[in-house]
Amino acid sequence: MTLPDPASPRPTGSSRLPARALPFGLPYALGLLAMALYALHLGR
Fold first, then answer.
1. Where does 1-44 have alpha helices with state H?
2. Contact 18, 26 (CB under 8 A)
3. pTM of model > 0.85
4. Average pLDDT, integer, range 1-27
5. For 5, which DSSP code?
6. 11 in helix, strand or coil?
7. How far apart are CA 20 and CA 24, in angstroms?
8. What is the DSSP letter of 2?
9. pLDDT band of 10, cuts 50, 70, 90
10. Taking 70 as the threshold, does the pLDDT of residue 34 lie above it?
């Protein structure tokens, strides 16, 4: 689910997808990391 397959039936937006998904995926990953660190902190 990281990058679209080159053999996908929709290769039109494949070059535009990573650049558009990065600004939304990076804060999401940082949020998950912060929640994991917070859960570990509460578990101590």
1. 17-43
2. no
3. no
4. 60
5. -
6. coil
7. 8
8. -
9. low
10. yes
Angstrom distances, CA of residue 16 to CA of 4, 8, 11, 21, 35: 11, 14, 10, 9, 30
Neighbours of 7 (CB within 10 A): 6
Mean pLDDT for all residues in the chain: 72
Q: Six-digit token pair at 35? A: 């929640």
**18 near 3, Cβ under 8 Å?**
yes
Distance of CA 39 to the CA centre of its chain: 21
pLDDT digits (tens, 9 = 90+) for 17-32: 555 666 778 888 999 9
> How far, in Å, CA of 10 to CA of 14, rounded?
8
CA dihedral (12, 16, 22, 23) positive or negative:
negative
Question: Residue 19 is encoded by which pair of tokens?
Answer: 């650049």
Using DSSP's 3-state secondary structure scheme, residue 21 falls into helix
